[in-house]
Amino acid sequence: MEPRDVFYTTVEDLQSALSLTTAESVVHAHAQLNHDGDVVFVDADDLRRAPAAAALASTPPDPRLSFIERPGGYPRRGPGRKKGSGLDLRESLLKVLLVLLSTSAYMNLMELFAPDELVHVNLKGLRDLRYKLSKITDKALRTRAWDLSRSGAVGVLIKYGTGGSRDDRGRHLAVAVEVSLTKDGVVCVCSEAEKCLGEGGCSMQEPMYKALDEVRLAAGVTMADLFVILGASRRMRSRAVGRAVLYGPSTCVVRMQGGSWLYAVVRKTRTANWICFSCRTADGSCQHAAAASAAARGGAADASESEGGSDDDNAGGDGSAGDGRGPMEHGNGRGKQAWQDASGLAVEGRRPDRGKQTPQSLLPRHIVPPLAAQAERATILLALQDPSITLFFPAAVKCPYCHVERLTDRTLREVLVECGEGVASGVVYTWRCHSCNYRVIPDGRDRGIVFTSSSTAYSEVFLFEMSVNLSRNGSSLRSSAYLRDAYRELSSDHVYPDAKDKLGSVTTLRKAIILYLSLVIAGVPAEVTRCSQCVRPDGSYAIICFDGLQLGYRLKFMVPFLRSSTKISPISRASVYARVIKDEALSKALGGVLSATASEKKVTITTLTAMRGNVMAFILLTGYVEVDGNVNTFAGSTLPKKGRKQDRGWDPIEDGGVRTELIGFLRFFFVCRRAARALAMIILGGPVDLLRRVPRPLIAAVQASAADFSDDADQVSGGVSAVDTLEVGNEGAHHGGSPAGRGAEVDDDGAASEGGSVVTDDSLASDGELSDNGAVNVLESCTDEDFRAGPGYVPPTGAWDDDAPLRFYAEQFGEPALADTGGASGAVQIRKLVLPLRAGAPCTAASALKVLDFVRAVVVDPFTVWAPTDDWSAVHAVFDCLLSDDFSVAHLSDVVARSDVSELRLLRGAVTCLAPTLCADVEVRRVFAELLLCLVETCGDYDDFVADAPPANADSMLPCGSDSDGDGSSDDEGISKTAMTLAHPDQVFTPQQYTRTWLLPEATAAAYDAAHGLPAGHVENFLRTGVWAPGLPLIRSLPGFVGASSAQTDFPDCQHDMGKQKSHTGGTFGGFCTCTHPKCLGVVVLDQSESQRMPIEFVVQRFATLPDTIIYDFACAALKTALVRLPHVAKKVSLRVDRFHWRKNHTLCSKAMSPDSYVSMDGANTSSSEERNALSRRQQHHLRQMKQDHFIIFTVYQQALSNVVAMYRDSATKETTIKWPEWYRRTLVDNEDE
């Protein structure tokens, strides 16, 4: 027979082989050395002459030798245990107790007793006892059994199972047992519900006594001496009543008063709740559960009383004897200390000991494997077909950590390589680093192999295919692994009959996938993290699209992220100063009635603020009322103070903050009676208790407007004949004459005077409201009938000429809305318009709607929508043209044709649709120009307000200048970046200070690293920060916006469902480009709920040049946040709502927030983020079950892989025949070789 080398992993296997040895075969036993160099066995002759299996060395055993000998590594992986043959603690209770007690006794003897005290102790007997129970491994007991020395007792804690509190027989699934020696013998008490000190005793009495007696006999000591040995490591401080000590991550023992129940065991559920085994009716609210929860949070007192680092309660039992690891840790600690003393190195300067670190591949990998990986996979398949083919993997030349070369001998080990179709056997060479003790193995990158350990490896091609399937097809890892096993089970006997090794388990495969994804993410090239289609020459982006994905992991897996920020205080009410109407309720009321016809509008008033806003909007349209022949504004300063504070009144100018230019524009151009009637109907539909608070004269005016059903067709544009309108239009275009029918003196409803006031009857005043002189009384006799309106108004129908009277202007200005009257449907729209133009302003139904959209945007939205990137050139051009002395139709046509004016479709549409009227009279042009000037002046008012706004806490602010934009005009010196970074965590800065320090100076990654004390070239750890954006490094401090959203700051107006944290985290938040095939520029894993502040935070922190436009589904709220918290960003960056959400749920903001209102957004894919997130939603069934690190790794890989697919689609043409993996390999992986 041909001799062969056989490797044996245990002494028993070697003895069995020796008993069967014949003359033809020779068994060689290779020496196995553990980490400390202790010999386990030398050769077959020594073992044969040994009287027992425990006599393993040629010299007498040293008492200080390790209790459990550990070989330096098994040469090959074992067959694994049979399914269902795991350790059952109830069936093997006596053996488990022997392991725990013998290990605890041996550790205490080795660590806490002097050598001369061990003369009469049989340490060899304790080792023999442990070797007899070697099948009960350390790994099996590590999280299931402990001794109670850390709780101050001699005893054990046994965890039978994790399926709840009790089994089907009502027994506790975790029991703490304490034993003591009394004059009557050994007494045992446990945490079960039984009465241990009563009749019958404890159910654990018999097994505990047997275990103690056997350990006593093995050590050769008396029972009293054994209790002294076992009690030497007790922590007496933990015997205090109520003291909680953690054992593992989900088990806690709480000390009780005494008697039969000395301890209560508490378990942690999957939802992170602590449940007590002892308290049946209050298992979640008892004191034991509260003590366990406090201990888990680090609030237990014994957490700060640990000694020497080996007595830590939060270590999960790692330092206790009961975890089955033996005193190897303590021996290593002494050896490590001796090594430190011999080397003379300080603790800070020594290299860490990586002897126990699992060796694995460390170098980054490509997203698509190279050709070498494909060739290696083919070799593995050949090895599966022919077992005589052996795969060899030479060790790395240098240590990957210390970068030192090999000084020790190489070791030959067997490695199993899996490629999906099967498992091939190979040989790997390893060596120990003499500096850090790391086991150096080959990395495998040059051959397309990923090593997860020194004995397990995977084909990179197989891991690539598996990862792509997980990311693109929505299958879970468990289902994919199951199908992998199923396919191999069907075909292996026919395709690879000689390949008998089993495939790796799901756990092993999961580790390999996570390792592979981590290496791929580390090797992602810069081309994958940016979009070549959207990036500008300076590296910035014009448009960025953001969206949140409500797909998170369980809250119990959440670990706090490391994100430093600079706190910034808000500027209260800054957003209202950015509008021409500073009262938000008034703006909402007027904007709401302008968004629909009067007959379709249904609004319910529920608050006094809303009532005040609607009443002031009514007064804005109709004018002030007259009381006793005098105009009464009902302003807050004119109302009497009847012993109570009454700050606000009902004047839209003084109390509502409406600019007079807007009032003049509305009353000059429009018939406001319909809109006023719509507001009156809304007001009268409010609750009676709110109506009683409105001054009586105002209620009378509202009632009169609601009851007025007179025909106003002669006042509305569209009621005049087409011939007259055409003549007026042509005359105005050529001669500048006044428009026919334009009655400057005609009031809105025909009943008002020239000043716009409404005459009311004195009899309307009662004792329930403000009387004629403004006195405030209590209304008691008023009923609901007093506030009801009559039957609904039905507008009369009229004929409409189908000819297009404004075709000349349509051709001149390129405005299709003026070219078609709309026929019968256009006539209906004109009759239904809630704010129609006056008869002297020729229009069509389409042009009137465009003008109405412009008016609503002026009323509702801030000034920033008219000045994208703070550029007022379009408004200034129209303003200068309207007030020019040489005004003409051609001049106005040239102005609206400019690119900056054409960019603002709302502004251009209003100018062109009003062109027939603007060209008719200089007074009309003056009124419109004053409105445009009003927008510019609103910007100036906003700048003055934010510059003079006091900080939220003046005492906590550093000095700063008063410039809101930070244009450098202030005389005060700015705060340095380093000073702001090193400020106290509670230090709050103003927006102006942050702007001067971070936004205005040039932003670079080097400056950021220097300010934060980071080394040059610092790479962000996305697992610790939760942010992956390699193409956008950190360049500014994260603006930490202080304070929750409120009505005075940035509470949103529109309603939008944001991601919330419930049982899972809020999900992720991503930034994408807007081309046809969008790429992910960065993804943020949320540690809280999604917020409208996140787009601003992301672009400020990472974009050196701020983008021109941000697309976000809640952009209206994000704009409000920017106005309140970072005015510089609000003016420099335009925020728009994506098309999908704009049509869906945005009702309180105007069309100025729609991307279709801007020419530059025509080619932008505003739903790019929705497209990318739709793919991620396929993975929700397994992403929701991942831990935080795995969730981040998988999410980042998915985005990087989708970027590769998008890059391929950008470059693919009709002639492209290869798929995206091969394209990527040729382009970015093996491009140098081809």
Layout of helices and strands, plus pairs?
Blueprint lengths: L10 H9 L24 H6 L43 H20 L10 H10 L5 H4 L3 E3 L7 E5 L14 E9 L2 E6 L14 H15 L3 H8 L13 E3 L4 E8 L2 E8 L5 E3 L10 H10 L31 H16 L27 H15 L5 E3 L17 E8 L4 E10 L6 E2 L8 E3 L4 E4 H13 L4 H19 L10 H17 L20 E7 L15 E4 L15 H11 L13 H15 L2 E3 L2 E3 L27 H10 L3 H12 L3 H4 L4 H11 L15 H14 L22 E2 L47 H7 L9 H10 L12 H16 L12 H10 L6 H8 L2 H5 L1 H9 L1 H4 L3 H27 L28 H5 L6 E2 L1 H9 L5 H7 L10 H4 L1 E2 L9 E4 L26 E5 L7 E6 L8 H9 L6 E4 L2 H11 L1 H6 L1 E3 L2 H7 L22 H9 L3 H4 L4 H24 L8 H10 L5
Parallel strand pairs: 9-11, 10-14, 15-25, 16-20, 16-22, 17-19, 25-26
Antiparallel strand pairs: 1-2, 2-3, 3-4, 5-6, 6-7, 7-8, 10-11, 11-12, 13-14, 15-23, 17-18, 21-24, 23-24
Helix pairs in contact: 3-4, 3-6, 4-6, 11-13, 13-40, 14-15, 14-23, 15-17, 16-29, 17-19, 23-27, 24-25, 24-29, 40-41
- Largest sheet data: 6 strands, mixed
β-strand amount: 5-15%
User: How far is the first residue's CA from the last residue's CA?
Assistant: 51 Å
* Number of helical segments with 4 or more residues: 41
Tell me the number of structural domains.
5
List unreliable stretches of 5+ residues.
1-9, 21-72, 299-349, 597-601, 719-802, 958-972
Mean pLDDT figure: 78
Helix/strand-derived category reads alpha/beta
- How many beta strands in the DSSP annotation? 26
Q: Specify the helix fraction band.
A: 25-40%
Biased composition (Acidic residues): 304-315
Region (Disordered): 66-85, 298-365, 729-756, 1160-1180
Biased composition (Gly residues): 316-325
Protein name: HMG domain-containing protein
